[in-house]
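Pasting as-is:
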Amino acid sequence: MVCDVLVAGGGSGGFGAALAAARGGLSVLLVEAHDRLGGTSTVAGVSAWESGCSGTSLPFELYRRLRRLPGAVGIYGVGRHCCWPDEGPYPGGENVLRPDLRYADTLVRYALGPLTYARREDRPLIRQRFNGVVFEPDAMADSMAGMLAETGRVRLALGTRAAGVAVSQGRVLRVELSDGTMVAPRFVVDSTGDGTLCALCGAEQFSGEDPRARFGEPGAPEEPTGRVNGVTLIVRVTRKDRPGVDPLPAGIPEACWWQAQFPVAHVVPFPNGDLSVNLLPTMQGAEFLARGYDAALAECRRRVLACWHHRQRTFAEWQGFRIQRTAEALGVRETRRTRCLETLRQQDLEAGLAGQRHPDIVTIADHNVDVHGPLAGSVRPVGAPYGIPYRCLVPDGFRNLLVACRAAGFSSLAASACRLSRTILQLGQAAGVACALARDAGGELPEVDVRALRARLRAQHVALDWPFDAELARFLQDE
């Protein structure tokens, strides 16, 4: 089988890459291991986009599509918080639906500098700025599939993954799929999340916290560690007719057995009144790697049941809900990262757009370093948006391969900030546009004209500057 672009992984990055490449006139084969698109946003149940300036193009298009479906999407803002006990006790961070807000209100997280929940004086700005998008996972998966189908250029292979590759002189010649199909693509985009295809190709990869000497990051540990960011298992709860504490299944203790106390929860309401409960984290990353995926998932299922029982016993309002569904997959924040032509570092995040010297920025973001583990709190929050260069998507030594997922060219600290879904979706979009430009020029991916790439992304309403220009701001008001 021959195609212009093979995209491995149908999460946010893979969807963005496949759609952008198809709209650029390329034939695309998108392979996804699960039975639907969306990855972490749907299969793992992380069905909320946090506040942040990345999300002006394809994410906004998805949002507008979801708006046409009853009860499919909403805007949320901050309610109660465990750092604000004077406003009422809560086991973490509560969010509430805000029908008075618009999509543009979810794109301004750090417009006024770094904020912290710990300072009382920051509360009004946090409530003003920390707004996000919540969506029904099935509606999101269906909308993604619909947008790809409308191009007429994307073949979707669900329940399929890349199983082997043939590589010569930095070019991926063939990819063998898990169903035995052999594919000869002109270009390949790895959007698997953990860089599985890059690993098959022999690209150099890193795992765990980088030593300080590797990238000169002041917040990194002196020596390398095997620690990675923690994982989450999302629980969806729904209202029940009669309040009460749900019994624990046999064999699950009432007390927390894996750490000193149960983790806090980040809670987001769905438009129908259900709640998405995200335990921060459900399992530390090192334990996740040591156990292996299947054993870690089984253990996390036990933990969320114990934690839910504890929450009901501690907070009476939670007795009015029951667990409706536990996500099929873990929300994995970090595994492997790929050595690319450029590595985004802590220094780049802290420098911001004004201090960066990258000529090839293809999306901007403003999420802070977000480590769930030993380094939590050791790095300063960012104070302004920063850019992610195209070279962070080009694995070192390869000619027709891009990586558009959390396994791209990030340090461990930078990956913790850049892993959010809307950011990854726009990195995928940049990858797809780059493939189209390389095809049109008859060239290879490392030589893509970055001025042309940035111009085409701007024309597609991708924000590359801060503040947004007037034309983009007007576009974002058209809901």
